Every structure is written in structure tokens, then in C-alpha cells.
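for the record, two folds in this file. i put them one after another cuz i was lazy. first one right below, seq on top, C-alpha cells after. the second one comes after a little note so u can tell where it starts
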Amino acid sequence: MLSRDPWLYKILTEGRGLGFKRVISAATILEASHAKVNRARWDFVLSELRIEPVSVDIAREGAELLRSTGLSGHKYAIDAMVAATAMRQPGPVIMLTSDVDDMAKLCDKRVRFIGL
């Protein structure tokens, strides 16, 4: 979204008009933030989303996802928190992700993926 991809921008803005809940894990903010991100664009994107906090329950659910899939370590920690957040949303859930393979391992079948 931050790269000004017209397709992603359309999903973001039209989703609002169609009544889609556009949710992001607070963990994703940390994961996607870096010095090259345009701050104004970043703030706009975040203003269009509902940001779900990473709670103790989300962390525990993420840890259980790691245990149940055999994944571990900080490489998968943010993915597990994002997956736990996604699975708490009422279905159907569509996740935009650059890591379809790992997210598919962590999420249940209600979650569908669009690779970025």
C-alpha cells in the first residue's frame, strides 16, 4: 500500500464503501515501519484501518499457533500474532500478505490469502 500500488489503494478505499472491515494487527505496524516509508502515506493508510492491539490473549494464541505448527523463534513471532488477530475476526477473512506460505501454516481454513 505504501508503494502507491493502485490495486492496493483501490482495495483500501473501496473496501470502506463496501462495508468491509479492514483490520491490521498493531504488530504489523512495527514490522512494516522503516526509514524509507513515506510518513504521510503511512499515516493515511493507518487512518483507513482498524488497528487491533496485541494483547496477552493474542500473544498466547500466537504462541499456541507456533507450538501446533512446529514453527518457533522471532522469525515467526509477528506472523503468529497477525494470524491470531486474523482468526479472531468474523469470517470470511481475506488476508493480504507477502508471506502466504507461512501464514497458511498458521491460520485456519476460514482465512483466505492474497499474495502481495
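(here's the note) second protein begins now
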Amino acid sequence: MKIGIGLPNQVRDVRPAIIPEWAAEAERAGFSTLGTIGRIAYPGVMDTVALAAAAGATSTIGLLSDVLLAPVWPAALLAKEAAGIDGVSGGRLTLGLAVGARPDDFVADGHGISGRGERFERDLRVYRDVWSGLPVGDNPAVPRGTREVPLLFGAGAPAAYERMARWGQGYIAPSVPPDRAAAAFDQARDAWQRAGRDGSPRLVALAYFAFGDVEAGRGNIRDYYRNFGDETASVVAAAARGGAAEVKEAVAAFGDLGADELIFNPGLDDLNEVRRLAETVL
């Protein structure tokens, strides 16, 4: 199982300049992937911006949005942004996508939360058209030679699994304990088989972590999820791995599930967190 690390782009009031430093440190440490958590209505850095900064600061590490809220974007604009990040990185981007659930993230006119599932289906076709070089207006939106960016899908609704099996290369489980991730992975595998896909979907697990001030890290995670209600926010925060023993336990548990990759997302934006995680899991 590969081990990746998230960028701290959605830690409340993150210092944006730390993002390229964090990315470079993670690559030097040997992590497989840099991930991002994405939303708009929160005082962080947009996932596309964080991924672009990481692309420019690194040369080999993978880049993954885990997950980006696709229907909040005009489809052609997101496709062009993603193609640009992928091109700058030398083909290292994978887009992890979901429909989103918080109404306040849907800020663009004509791209509200209502009808987002149907809109997402249309958008996926637009992405492929843009990446293949079909015109947007009078011209293609992307340079010749642009590749189709690989897609993974998150969320737990039946439509999300079906969408993953039709459009994607795999599935990203939510930040939940291993037993709940196991059920999600089973549904992803079942959807893949029903769709007649060869092989198996790529399965990515997510876990929050903190090494320094663990309670502050859990507080940041709780704050990020608080508009889902205090109970949900507290459950997610409590599941964050605090310190080496809990981090190692997560690696063993998700490895036993057959996850292809586990990405540890930070609760703190302290650069020392990268080093301490690497010392523990790599």
C-alpha cells in the first residue's frame, strides 16, 4: 500500500506560502502522493491553486484532489484548470471528484446545489471533450497533446459508485474508520464488476493525523466539519490519528482492507508534521 500526505490547504487560516514548502518536503521524504481537500466557503486555499503550487515545487510526487467539488465549477473552466495543472506537473495529476453537500460552497451563478448530480453527469462529458481538443467557442481550450486526466470518485450514494464505474479509475473513501471504509470499498468493487470493467478499481483511503498539538489538530478538523452538525464533526475529529502509535495502527488497518493507497490529511499546518509522519510510516 502506498502512503501519501495531504497538503494543509484547508486548515483554517493556513499560511498559503507553506504549501510549496510542504510539497517539496513531502517529495523529499518519499511520499507517493500529495492530496488536497476542497471547498470554497472556508478560509483556506482553493484545491486547484494548492495543486498548481505543488506541481511547480515538485517533480515526481503524484497529485490528487481528495476530493474536489466538481459541480461548483463551470465544466469547461475546471477542465482547463485541471489540464493546466496536469501539464505543468508533467502528467502527475489525478482528479478525485464528488458532488458536494454544503450549500454555501455553490457560489457561482447557475451552479447551485440543486440538480448537481445531473449537472455532474453532463460536466464529465464536457471534461473529456475539452481534454480531447474539441473547440470551446472558436478554439480548443487546451494545448495539443493534452491528455485525459484520470478520475477517481468519492461520496457514498449509489449514484457515486455507478459514476465511478462508468467514468473513473477508482474510488476514494471518506475520512471514516476502517470498518466503514471497508463497506465503501466493497460497494466500489461491486459497482466495478456490474459495469463489466476489467481488473479492480484503484482504492484510496483517507485518514486525518496530527503529531504536535494533537488536540489543536482535532479542533481544526472539528471546525472544518462543524456545519454538518456537532455530532458528525466530533466523530470525524475523534477519528484523527494522534501520534505514531495511532498512525501505525491506521496503516495496518487500511492495508488489511486492500487499499491501494492511504493518504494522511493534516490537522495542523506545521511543516514538522511532514517529517514526523515520514519517520513513522515510510
